[in-house]
Design brief:
Number of domains: 2
Bound molecules: adenosine-5'-triphosphate, magnesium ion
Structural class: alpha+beta
Distance between the termini: 67 Å
Number of strands: 11
Helix content: 25-40%
Radius of gyration: 21 Å
Shape: globular
């Protein structure tokens, strides 16, 4: 392998493998640290890495995508791979990144959790502000999802802000309350009114020690994410199935549930639940993207495993007193069906 074009895939401060994207050659350093999604790649590993990098980066249908790229100095036809590598593939999703072969740089000095990133990009990514060119690092290139969103660091830590039509905001907030009143392990969405719009925000759950890998990556590693979730986090798994039914969540696709992973690449268990902007729209025939089971059937199977007659007591008190009668009635009816099933 010639090293002049070579890069190194890193996991925090550890070298994973050296690679050359022009010749597709690579030199393995530590196989146990290879991202799970490509650990069982059938073809060339560098090709698989390239696809993985592209799939964890900004989506074609992401709100404000063109403005984000423009702010990074890319307009018209762009090479997303160049963009990903220019920002070292750094993200706030996990602790993988890329450096030039033999480049003398430490994760401690570049990671986005502890080092600064562009504040100006926040307005571009969240509201589509124009005429801004950013300097320095940004987490927005290596970020998934379709809604307008942006990371912001405040005194209390890093938060993910999301905005969109009023109905989505209302949905995300109410579903978050539903999870909270059931004591489920979920990120907490709070309403924030800014100068430009109405947003929700939640605290970043990942860190320099803990990354998230979507269920999609577990599937790509040849494992069944449902079996893994039941084995590592049965409580969280059953909570998710109950939540998806009572909140009528139609959007639990394989990037909308994730596992936590440490910097030795060990999968620790399910992350908290997140992304509730497509709730309260399921009916009795709606199936889950997780396993194509009807939401209701999955919940009826999970409820007896972790639920009892008191399980929904706090939630019901909240639902009976809250002002959003339409959403409350939707959830109450579903709660009644689950309770009936164990009485
Ligand atoms: N609290 C959090 N901590 C860390 N990462 C998060 C958090 N919330 C979301 N993420 C990451 O950000 C991604 C995008 O967030 P989210 O799914 O809420 O956006 P979305 O635009 O609504 O997505 P979709 O396109 O699925 O509707 C998630 O897939 C997840 O990887
Ligand atoms: Mg999502």
């Amino acid at each position: 392998m010639q090293y002049e074009h070579a890069h190194t895939l890193m996991l925090a401060e550890q070298e994973v493998f050296h690679f050359d994207m022009t010749t597709y050659e690579y030199e393995m350093i530590d196989r146990s640290l290879v991202p799970h999604a490509i650990s069982r790649a059938s073809g060339n590993l560098v090709y698989a890495l390239r696809t993985w990098l592209q799939e964890r980066a900004i989506q074609v249908n992401r709100s404000n995508k063109d403005k984000i790229l423009k702010a990074c100095g890319m307009s018209g036809a762009y090479d997303i791979l160049t963009l990903i590598t220019r920002y070292r593939a750094l993200s706030l999703l996990d602790n993988y990144w890329i450096k030039g072969y033999d480049e003398d740089v430490r994760y401690a000095d570049v990671n986005l959790y502890e080092n600064s990133f562009s504040r100006a990009m926040y307005s571009v990514a969240l509201y589509g502000a124009e005429g801004i060119t950013i300097q320095g690092a940004t987490p927005e290139i290596n970020q998934r999802g379709t809604m307008a969103k942006a990371y912001k660091r405040t005194n209390g830590g890093i938060y993910l802000y999301k905005t969109g039509i009023a109905d989505k905001i209302r949905t995300e907030l109410f579903a978050s309350k539903v999870a909270q009143y059931c004591d489920m392990s979920s990120v907490e969405y709070r309403n924030v009114h800014t100068k430009h719009s109405n947003c929700v925000r939640c605290r970043l759950e990942t860190s320099t020690q803990i990354g998230w890998i979507p269920a999609k990556d577990i599937t790509n590693s040849g494992r069944n994410p449902v079996e893994l979730a039941k084995e590592l986090s049965p409580q969280r798994y059953h909570e998710m199935r109950i939540f998806d039914y009572i909140a009528g969540n139609t959007d639990r696709h394989n990037e909308n549930w994730a596992f936590e992973v440490d910097n030795r690449n060990r999968i620790l268990g399910l992350s908290r639940m997140y992304d509730f902007d497509n709730c309260f729209c399921a009916d009795d025939t709606t199936t889950s993207h997780i396993d194509l089971k009807p939401l209701k059937k999955a919940a009826l199977q999970s409820f007896p495993v972790i639920g009892d007659t008191q399980y929904f007591t706090r939630l019901k008190a909240f639902l009976r007193s809250c002002r959003q009668r339409d959403l409350a009635a939707y959830v109450l009816e579903r709660v009644r069906i689950l309770e009936q099933s164990i009485s």
